[in-house]
Amino acid sequence: MTDIRFGTSGWRAIVAEEFTMENVRMVVRAIARFVKRHQEDAKLIVGYDTRFLAETFARESARILAEEGVDVLLCAEPVPTPVVAYAILAERAHGGVNITASHNPPEYQGIKFSTADGAPALPEITREIEQEIERIRQMGDRAMPSSDRLGRIHAYDPREGYLRDLATKVDLSAIGRAHLRVAVDPLWGTARGYVDRLLREAGCAVHVLHDHRDVLFGGGAPEPSAERLAELSRVVASGGFDLGVATDGDADRFGIVDRGGVFVTPNQILALLFDYLCETRPWEGGVARSIATSHQVDRVARRRGRPVYETPVGFKYIGELLKAGKIILGGEESAGLSIRGHYPEKDGILAALLVVEVVARTGASVREGLERLYAQDGRLWSGRIGIAVTEEARRRLQEKLHADPPTEFFGRRLVGVNRTDGLKLLFDDGSWLLLRLSGTEPIARCYAEATSEADLEVLLEQGRIFALQ
């Protein structure tokens, strides 16, 4: 049996292979015992997404938690990950168990564990849970529960509370005055009835795609990428919509399609939103981005006199900076963000509404707003590729990532090296390259950024060659 390990955002596996009811029981029992060690009268939120058997796994998770003496608020319907974060804080719970595989392909399912602050569990916590899983595995899951008291299970619906809270963080009045036409694509996921409802109530004309449950997600991953949002792009272009917004399977990631059906990358949106928040919100603080995220936001921060915080990949690290009050926005190139005063968890619903607010208040399209930003800060081009690696190639690359860095890279002059997460090489013209090995797949991820689109393509190819040499 394969060891159960938590990745950057929980534990994920293929249903009926590793994601089995037996393994779910072990993981949830381990979470219960971890929580009970720190809080005897513990209470946890249990949520789930729209995937195959998600509600069944959630009900069994609630039963195991109650057996371990944990009180449970079991969500009555599929809920977005940021709504679980809201519920933890609103109900003063001691954490949350969320049955979701987020944007993974439909054959996957997973478990996310959030702590009492609403944030994704940090590595030191998930390591402790992994150790508890191993103890349970060795003893057998038939071991006696750790509590003499049975917990109580209550049905719970956090939707209305979350929507009321979100309405205090977005300028819905400005959105309403603009009378925008917006296409919304929840990708068959948990955000159905969230973004579209608030926009309709604000006064927008809204058209919704994929507004029903489909456990196969239309035959692909519920990821708001350019490829998976091709239909939304066609609808925005052919229907003359001002904007298209999307969320992934558990609504912690966002996707933006501008007027005319043009997809806008998360890296570009982060820079646009940070600049906008600096202009419109009376907040002090900087911006946080993962090591793999564009430095375009750094240029905005430099112009605005704001600090930049670089983190390893994983929103939990950005969440710590939000909790500390050091930043007004934190985000990742993988389309996750949150803002000051919100939860220390990425929220695709919030992100989508903020972009609509930008368009409503400025009267400009997303790309027009970006052109104004580039006129002040210059433009950077960013991208990433996945590189399939054999076990031998993986071993060689692992050695390279920990060896002394090269003195030059295909004729480029190095001015810095960052090993926060993988190997990041910074060059004298402002371009950079990052190589990381995937923890779950036999691939290396290569991220790069350059001052021209042509040089970006060259740099990505140089990264591929370096990884496979």
Draw up the topology in text.
Blueprint: E1 11-14, H1 21-38, E2 43-48, H2 54-67, E3 71-75, H3 81-90, E4 95-99, E5 108-115, H4 123-139, E6 153-156, H5 159-167, H6 172-178, E7 181-185, H7 195-202, E8 205-208, H8 230-239, E9 243-247, E10 254-258, E11 262-264, H9 266-280, E12 286-290, H10 296-304, E13 308-311, H11 315-323, E14 327-332, E15 336-339, H12 348-362, H13 366-377, E16 381-388, H14 391-402, E17 408-409, E18 412-418, E19 423-427, E20 432-437, E21 443-450, H15 453-468
Helix pairs in contact: 1-2, 1-4, 6-7, 6-12, 9-10, 9-13
Structural overview:
The chain is of the alpha/beta class and 469 residues long. Helix 1 packs across helix 2 (54-67) and helix 6 (172-178) crosses helix 7. The protein has helices at residues 21-38, 54-67, 81-90, 123-139, 159-167, 172-178, 195-202, 230-239, 266-280, 296-304, 315-323, 348-362, 366-377, 391-402, 453-468, and strands spanning 11-14, 43-48, 71-75, 95-99, 108-115, 153-156, 181-185, 205-208, 243-247, 254-258, 262-264, 286-290, 308-311, 327-332, 336-339, 381-388, 408-409, 412-418, 423-427, 432-437, 443-450. It has three domains: 11-158, 3-Layer(aba) Sandwich (Alpha-D-Glucose-1,6-Bisphosphate, Chain A, domain 3), CATH 3.40.120; 169-377, Alpha-D-Glucose-1,6-Bisphosphate, subunit A, domain 3 (Alpha-D-Glucose-1,6-Bisphosphate, Chain A, domain 3, 3-Layer(aba) Sandwich), CATH 3.40.120.10; 381-468, 2-Layer Sandwich (TATA-Binding Protein), CATH 3.30.310. The strands form four sheets. Strands 1-5-4-2-3-6 form a six-stranded mixed sheet, sandwiched between helices. The protein has a six-stranded antiparallel sheet with strand order 16-21-20-19-18-17, with helices on one face. The protein has a five-stranded mixed sheet with strand order 8-7-9-10-11, with helices on both faces. The two termini are 34 Å apart. It contains 15 helices and 21 strands.
